[in-house]
Amino acid sequence: MPAEGRVARMRTGGGLFYLDDYFNGPLKQWLSDDDTKQEPAQKKKQPKYQKAEIEFEKSRKQSAVREENRDLISSQHLQVKKSWEAPGVYAWGSNVGKVIDPQSNQSVVKLPKRIPYFDGQLLRDIKLTQEFGAAVTEKGDLVQWGLGYSKTDPSPVETLKGKDISKIAVSNDRIIALSSTGSVYSLPAARNDQDTGAKLQPQSSSSSWIPFWSSSGAEAVNSRILTPSSLSRGEKVVDVSSGLQYCLFLTSKGRVFSAAASTSEFPTKGQMGIPGLSWATRPQGPYDQPHEVAGLSGFKIAKIAAGDLHSVALDQDGKVFTFGDNTFGQLGIAADAGFQKLDVPSLLPTAKLYANSGLIPKITSVAAGGNNTFFTVDAAEAGNEPVAGDLAPARRMPRVTADLWACGQGVYGSLGTGKWTHVTPGPVKVKALSSLFEFDEDANCMAPIRLSNISVGSTHVSATMDNVTRTGAGQRGSLNDTNWGADVLFWGGNEHYQLGTGKRSNLNSPSYIGALDGGAGDALMGRGGEVHRFQLTPRQTVRLGEDGKGRKVSLEQKVECGRFVTAVYSSV
C-alpha cells in the first residue's frame, strides 16, 4: 500500500475512526491561520555555523627607494632611524611635579611624550622623580626642572656648570653629582635652597658647606663637596648611587663609602653599613661626611646599587653583600624578627640557589630600587666533559645559562614572577627572563641571552636584553636589509601610568610596550592599527639629523626608571 494512502484505524464503540479525517477536519479548524503559517519556518533548519567571509590582505605600498622600502617592511628599522634623526628624551608617568610636561596641568602622562627642551640633545645621565628632574648635558653641565626645583617656573634650567659631571643620583631633596675627575658634589634639588648663603670661590676639598661660583660665572649654586678625604694616591670615586636619605660611593680601588644625603631625615635603617650609626651617635663634623664601609674591606667591590632604604654591593669574584632595611626581604634573607634590618654587610648565600643542579653560579651584575633587589647569574656546567652525542656545534646548547633573580616587595608586581607577593623569604627566579637562548650566526652556535641593563624605580622595573642587534644596514645592502635594536621589557606598579602601556593596571610579569611615537610612524608606512614592540637603539657612530646630514657622534638609547616616572633618552 502506498505511503500516502495509509490510514490508521481505531475501533471505538461500534465503528471505525479514521485519523486522517480527524487531522484534516476538526483539528485543522482549531488551529489558527498564524500557527499554520509558522509551521514551515519552524521546520526550516538553521545553519550550524556562520559562513566565513574571506578578506584578503591589502598589498603594501611599493617603493623603489631602498631606505623607504626598509621603513615599509620593518617597524624596528624605522625606530632605529628615528632615534638617529631626532635624538632627545621621551618620558611618561606622574606629572604632578610638571617633570614630564611643565606646561600641562595633567597629573599623569599615559604614553611616551617628548620633553621639547631636550630635542636634538644627547645626555650623559638623567634622573626623574615625581617632584623634580635632573639631567647632565653632553658638555657635563647639570640641568634641573620641575615644581620641586621651582614653584614659579618648572622649566629646565642649567645650574651647576663647568664641573664636567659624568653621572648623577638623587635622594629625597638633593642631587649627588660625580665629575669625570672623581669629585662628588651635593646640591639641593630646590632652587631656593641653592640661592641661600654667601657666594664664595670653591675650595679644593671639604665636607662642610661650600657655596661657589660656577666656572662660567653665569649661575651661582650653593653646593657641598662630598669627596672622601681618605682616598689614597691615584684613587678616585668612579660611581655613585643613592636612596631616599643616603648615597654610596665606589672608588677605583674597590672601596665603598656612604654618606647622608637628605636634609629632611637621617638614615636609620642600617643602609649606610656603619654599625650603630644614628643621628645621636654620629661623629663630630658635618652630618653628611663620608664613612668607609669597613665591613667590605678586603673585598674589591665592582658594582654598587641603592634602593630606597637598603644597599647592595657586588665584588669582582661574584659575591653579593646586602645591608639596610629588610622589611620585605629585599636583602635576600627572610624578614623575620631577627633580620628586620642589618647595619653591617651580609653575604648573600647564592650557592644554595643552584644546589644539586650541577651548575656553578657566578653573579655578574646587581640592581636595586624601591624595596627590591635584582641580580643576574651566569650558571655554568661543572667540569669539562665533552658534549654527549655527535652533535654539530650549531645544534649544541651552551654550557652557560643566564638567569635573573629578584627579592623584596612584589605586591605591585615588581618581582616579575607572575605573582603578587608581599614579602619574599629569599631570592626568586624571574623565569620570563631566565634560561633564554638565541642562535648567533657569526659564531654558528646557540648563545645565552643576557640582560645588558636593569633599571629599578620605586615600584616598577625595566630590563634591556643583550640580544643580537643590527645597525649596519647601509646603501650597499639589499632592499630588505634592515636594522633592529635591543628588546626592552617593563613590569611592576602602574598607578601613575609609568609602564607606558596606556593602561593603569599593574603587571606582574615582563611585558613589551609599543613604539615611542605611539605608532605614528607605522601609520605613515601603512601599518596603522598594528602594535609593534619598542626596541632600544644600541650604541653606534652615526651622523645625526634627517638623511644623516648632521654631526658625527657615538650614541645609544637608555631607559631610566625613577619614582613613578620613566624616561628613554639618547645617551652620549
Automatic annotation (TrEMBL):
One Pfam family linked to the record: RCC1_2
UniProt-listed PROSITE patterns: RCC1_2, RCC1_3
RCC repeats: 254-317, 318-379, 486-539
Bias (Basic and acidic residues) ranges: 50-61
An example Gene Ontology biological process: mitochondrial respiratory chain complex III assembly
Region feature Disordered, mapped onto this chain: 31-61
InterPro entries, sorted: MitoProcess-Associated (IPR053245), RCC1/BLIP-II (IPR009091), Reg_chr_condens (IPR000408)
Domain of life: Eukaryota
GO cellular component, one term: mitochondrial inner membrane
The protein, known as: Protein FMP25
Organism of derivation: Colletotrichum orbiculare (strain 104-T / ATCC 96160 / CBS 514.97 / LARS 414 / MAFF 240422) (Cucumber anthracnose fungus)
